[in-house]
């Protein structure tokens, strides 16, 4: 099969021929239909993720068609189109049985702990515990986001911080997760403020329905959120994983507010100072989140199928596998609005 491989940190991905994967026991092999290019992939590309050893095939936002089924798989067959969360939980341990698959101790993570989906084919373990049938109404390029950016935002809003209709949501970072949080938040009845430093991203967020957009280069973003919301946001989503936005998100909250750390703190930002006096005096709640358990797909898919949210504007660039390096490098700076999805694996 054809795959894009990291062979040197920050170097162009090498397009190589590899053996097609075989299905593990309890798993399947997918023909990859689409794979998103995510900021988390950038962390792998620059060497900031300790799980990644070279050479390595990145890619964790995928959808595909089952082309082979391993021994022991009960629920799936060749020809079905499926999606899966990027955290593939075992489905058997105590955490999984309690519904907390994202903390499974034996989880597999394509693109990080195993070969990922910047490739024509992908082996997916623990199929019965993780796969979800892809509705015919959802195109593969959009479905790729249901492996990470969209599902991560959905779980942050509903599974961790319980966003309520009428609340103010502040989103710090207008990338894929941030835009997902914006659109899902509005679908849930929240008012949304988006903070970023790129005028084009803010303009795009405004077109997608943001009530307020704030350019963090033009002053104190947290103060601007508090002023725009009449005292502070009820919930803040940090969608970049850096100190400036984490601190800003906390300081943007009203008393008794909640903040969810969605962005992945890695490299120089793995440890960061935060204003604990603000947490203490505001009696704030801070949540961490990573991915979404597979059992929460129905609530998101029903929202989409009912027409309450159209996530199609997320995908602004459909690219070839050979273009993936360019998109990864864009994360070194302020990336363009929207997200890129690999849909052509032959060029």
From TrEMBL:
Highest taxon of the lineage: Bacteria
Domain Enoyl reductase (ER): 10-342
Cofactor(s), by name: Zn(2+)
Keywords, alphabetical: Metal-binding, Oxidoreductase, Zinc
A GO molecular-function descriptor: zinc ion binding
InterPro entries: ADH-like_C, ADH-like_N, ADH_Zn_CS, ER, GroES-like_sf, NAD(P)-bd_dom_sf, Zn_alcohol_dh
SMART domains: PKS_ER
Family membership noted in the UniProt record: Belongs to the zinc-containing alcohol dehydrogenase family.
Protein name stated in the entry: Alcohol dehydrogenase
Organism: Lentibacter algarum
């Amino acid at each position: 099969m054809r795959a894009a491989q990291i062979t040197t940190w920050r170097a162009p991905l090498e397009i190589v021929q590899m053996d097609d994967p075989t299905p593990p026991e309890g798993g399947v092999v997918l023909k990859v239909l689409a794979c998103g290019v995510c900021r988390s992939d950038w962390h792998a590309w620059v060497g900031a993720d300790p799980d990644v050893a070279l050479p390595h095939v990145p890619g964790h936002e995928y959808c595909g068609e089952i082309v082979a089924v391993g021994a022991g798989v009960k629920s799936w067959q060749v020809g079905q189109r499926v999606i899966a969360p990027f955290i593939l939980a075992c489905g058997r341990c105590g955490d999984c049985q309690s519904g907390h698959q994202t903390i499974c101790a034996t989880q597999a993570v394509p693109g990080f702990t195993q070969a990922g989906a910047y490739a024509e084919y992908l082996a997916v373990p623990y199929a019965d515990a993780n796969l979800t049938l892809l509705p015919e109404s959802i195109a593969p390029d959009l479905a790729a986001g249901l492996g990470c950016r969209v599902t991560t935002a959905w779980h942050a809003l509903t599974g961790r911080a319980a966003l309520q209709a009428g609340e103010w949501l502040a989103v710090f970072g207008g990338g894929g997760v941030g835009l997902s949080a914006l659109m899902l938040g509005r679908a849930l009845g929240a008012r949304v403020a988006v903070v970023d430093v790129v005028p084009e991203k803010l303009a795009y967020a405004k077109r997608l329905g943001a009530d307020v957009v704030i350019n963090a280069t033009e002053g104190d973003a947290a103060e601007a959120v508090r002023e725009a919301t009449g005292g502070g946001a009820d919930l803040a989503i940090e969608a970049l994983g850096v100190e400036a936005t984490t601190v800003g998100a906390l300081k943007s909250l009203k008393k008794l507010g909640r903040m969810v750390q969605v962005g992945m703190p890695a490299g120089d930002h793995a440890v960061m100072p935060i204003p604990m006096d603000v947490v203490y005096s505001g009696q704030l709640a801070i949540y961490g989140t990573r991915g979404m358990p597979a059992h929460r797909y129905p609530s998101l898919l029903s929202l989409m199928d009912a027409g309450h949210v159209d996530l199609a504007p997320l995908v602004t660039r459909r690219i070839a596998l050979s273009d993936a390096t360019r998109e990864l490098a864009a994360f070194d700076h302020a990336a363009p609005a929207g997200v890129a999805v690999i849909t052509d694996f032959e060029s």
